[in-house]
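Thread: "does anyone have the structure for this chain?"

Original post by V.I.:
We have the sequence but no experimental structure in hand. Need at least a predicted one for the grant figures.
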Amino acid sequence: MKWIIPPLPPLIKGGWGDLGLFYKMRHLKDLLKKLLHIEDTPERTALAYSIGIFLGFSPFLGFHTLAGLAIAFLFRLNRVAVLLGVWTNTPWWIVPYYMIATWVGMWVTGFWIDWATLNEIFQLGKDQGFMSSDFWNRIASQWGLLLSLGIGSLILCTLLSLVAYPLSLKWIRFYRSRLK
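Reply from O.Q.:
Generated one for you, tokens below.
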């Protein structure tokens, strides 16, 4: 019985030896470093994180991750740092943050909604469901509330990102100095 050795796949031209596999793994590590921008300067990494904070707390609910990745690729920023910033706004923070942001926006715009109207809107959501068209039509009729939410969260996300930059820069420099 004769053994038939199959031809090597086109990706492994150097043979099946350990050196070929090591060479491929080294290229994979280099690719990951390039993709994630791990070797960025502390300033660029802190900038990427603060941009992620800005996007994560912005009023564009549901588009935070997509916007973060798009900006990270567009400006060649550290993708991990941007996503860490975006994902800082966890479900635990969303309701209190956007309530405070709406209040700040109401204070800036001068629009105030009375508690009876607010209670009516939420009762409609509880009765018919928060995804019903009646609920969202009622929310949309309160344009001042939506404007207040947008303006307030833009103000707060700007402040948070301005605070995040120096704090993250200091932490990154400290962490990298400990690695050396």
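V.I.: this helps a lot. The mean pLDDT is 83.
O.Q.: and The chain has one domain: 18-179.
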